[in-house]
Specification:
Elements: H1 11-16, E1 28-33, H2 42-57, E2 62-67, H3 75-84, E3 89-90, H4 116-124, H5 126-132, E4 140-150, E5 152-155, E6 169-172, H6 176-184, E7 188-191, H7 197-203, E8 208-211, H8 213-218, E9 227-229, E10 235-243, H9 244-249, H10 252-286, E11 291-292, H11 296-306, H12 309-317, H13 319-328
Parallel strand pairs: 1-2, 1-3, 6-7, 6-8, 9-11
Antiparallel strand pairs: 4-10, 5-8, 5-9
Helix pairs in contact: 2-10, 4-13
This protein binds (2S)-2-hydroxybutanedioic acid.
(2S)-2-hydroxybutanedioic acid (LMR) binds at residues 35-36, 43, 93, 148, 173, 194, 211, 215, 236.
């Protein structure tokens, strides 16, 4: 059984890396790199559960090590690192795959998914499963979708009506749908790496951002914003991805067991994602952060200005995929 390294040397690493395992001779090291917190966060909790199970049930064969909080790579570098073999697993947001496929743009359509049940139905349906395989020609294998949740806007001033966002600079992920969405509300979008967001908000490089409760709390964005408006306007979900070359290099029994554990733990973790986000929302409130809610009429105004963005990207994803996503919410 692997032991968690507990020397002083690794103490600081351990504080953010609960499943940092000491690997034994003969085990293949599986480095899992991601940009968010390791604990109290849907992705971090999923990664931890996966690592714990791999390290106990595949002891002697595989040894998974977690590298959270952009310790190893930003999301824009990690895809390259997978192909180079510098890391074996990553889970970037689906918004960050534009260089590999435009089909994932469906997940960024504003106000498409009204809750995580709709996301679950779509992801597990034929279209969602087909999309999982859409970057295989680039050398990647999608292992599973790891859920986070729906996003909310925060800014240096109250956001109640979409017109409140006019002229403000918002940080977005590397997603053209997100850029179009910000432009639709009269804002200026700035693509920035996740680890730069707090500093950019603090120094005024950007005025606002949009993210889930778990990212807003664990990365303390709320501390450098006037408040957050509960808009639930867009989804944040991840693709757990590996390189085909690495996966194929595993003996078939090892590969099958690894993929099975990965999928099983993801399903369990996804069922906890909404509760984890809700917990983070409560922590923001407890820490004195301001959360504003919208009346149905106010929310309808945001929907009205942002939903037309779909038309611009409909050809990239295909009407059949859009229809499947809409049907998943019914
Ligand atoms: C972001 O860049 O805002 C997110 O993709 C970060 C994450 O992994 O949740």
């Amino acid at each position: 059984m692997k032991k968690i390294i507990a020397t002083a040397l690794f103490a600081s690493l351990l504080s953010t890396t609960p499943a940092f395992a000491s690997c034994e001779k003969g085990e293949r090291i599986v480095k899992f790199s991601f940009v968010t917190a390791a604990t109290g966060h849907p992705k971090g909790e999923a990664a931890t559960a996966i690592a714990e199970r791999i390290n106990s049930e595949m002891n002697g064969k595989l040894c998974m090590q977690l590298f959270p909080s952009s310790q190893l790579f930003n999301d824009n570098k990690v895809m390259e690192a997978l192909l180079l073999g510098d890391v074996q697993i990553a889970a970037p947001s689906l918004s960050k795959f534009e260089a590999y496929t435009k089909k994932f743009r469906i997940f960024d359509f504003p106000f498409l998914f009204s809750d995580m049940d709709a996301v679950n139905t779509f992801s597990n349906g034929p279209k969602g499963q087909e999309l999982l395989r859409s970057i295989e020609d680039k050398g990647y294998v999608g292992l599973s979708y790891i859920y986070n949740g729906l996003k909310h806007f925060s800014a240096k001033k109250p956001l109640i009506n979409p017109t409140d966002a006019e002229g403000l600079k918002f940080r977005v992920q590397t997603s053209d749908v997100a850029v179009a969405m910000i432009e639709a509300i009269g804002g200026n979008a700035q693509k920035l790496a996740f680890k730069e967001v707090y500093g950019a908000l603090q120094t005024g490089v950007v005025d606002g951002q949009e993210n889930t409760w778990s990212n807003i709390y664990t990365k303390k964005f709320f501390e450098v914003q006037d408040g957050t408006t509960e808009t639930n306007h867009q989804l944040l979900t991840y693709l757990a991805v590996t390189s085909k070359e690495w996966l194929d290099s595993l003996p078939s029994k090892t590969r099958n067991q690894f993929v099975k554990i990965f999928k099983e733990e993801t399903i369990k973790a996804n069922a906890r994602a909404t509760a984890i986000n809700e917990d983070n929302k409560q922590k923001i409130l407890a820490a004195g952060g301001k959360i504003r809610t919208l009346t149905p009429a106010q929310r309808a105004d945001w929907v009205k200005v942002m939903k037309p963005v779909w038309a611009k990207f409909a050809n990239d994803v295909g009407q059949d995929t859009i229809d499947a996503a809409i049907a998943a919410g019914k």
